[in-house]
Amino acid sequence: MNLNAVNDHQVLTKSQLRRSLIKTRQSMSVGEWREKSDRISHLLQSSTVFTQAKTVLAYFSFRQEPDLSSLFVHTHHRWGFPRCVDQSLRWHSWIPQDSLIINAYGIKEPDPQAPTIDPEEVDLILVPSVACNYQGYRLGYGGGYYDRLLSSPEWSKKPTIGIVFDFAYLPQLPIENWDQPLQAVLTETSFHVNS
């Protein structure tokens, strides 16, 4: 599958594009993945929206998503991570010494007994993405968890940053009417704020 097909105006389905981008991501060497992840973390640390946030919702890297774990030791932030519960995400506080469980998808999650985080406490959401486009729309894994979350009134105004590697920041993506745009997209080379 040729990723340039998107640029050549050949229409890929979401599932084809998702498979291709995940394959590209997983083909990176560990060293390249680590270096690019560190650059993303460094850029995030220098952004005002991050430095001013107190409670930040994040994710544990899965299938070579950009890894932000070097930031999780920063105790001036309260970190929250999701658990998949039915068709929605439930957010829990987590610190590095807390245990984690592996869910049915193979993704790390906080313990169900960990303290929950309510929407009004949240200052920033770092959104894992397979890809993002120049308008801030994202391609996820197809479960719709983040679209459902960000379309609900209590979450819709929260600052959101999609986290992707440069190769997955694309001019266009297939968009559905339920897709929710993110306010910014961060790659290893740049921080893009969407108007």
TrEMBL record:
Protein family per UniProt: Belongs to the 5-formyltetrahydrofolate cyclo-ligase family.
Keyword set, alphabetical order: ATP-binding, Ligase, Magnesium, Metal-binding, Nucleotide-binding
EC number: 6.3.3.2
Keyword Nucleotide-binding set for record: yes
Major enzyme class: ligase
Domain of life of the organism encoding this protein: Bacteria
Reaction catalyzed: (6S)-5-formyl-5,6,7,8-tetrahydrofolate + ATP = (6R)-5,10-methenyltetrahydrofolate + ADP + phosphate
Pfam families registered for this protein in UniProt: 5-FTHF_cyc-lig
Listed InterPro entries: FTHF_cligase, FTHF_cligase-like_sf, NagB/RpiA_transferase-like
Listed name of the protein: 5-formyltetrahydrofolate cyclo-ligase
UniProt source species: Nostoc parmelioides FACHB-3921
A molecular function GO annotation: 5-formyltetrahydrofolate cyclo-ligase activity
Cofactor(s) essential for the protein: Mg(2+)
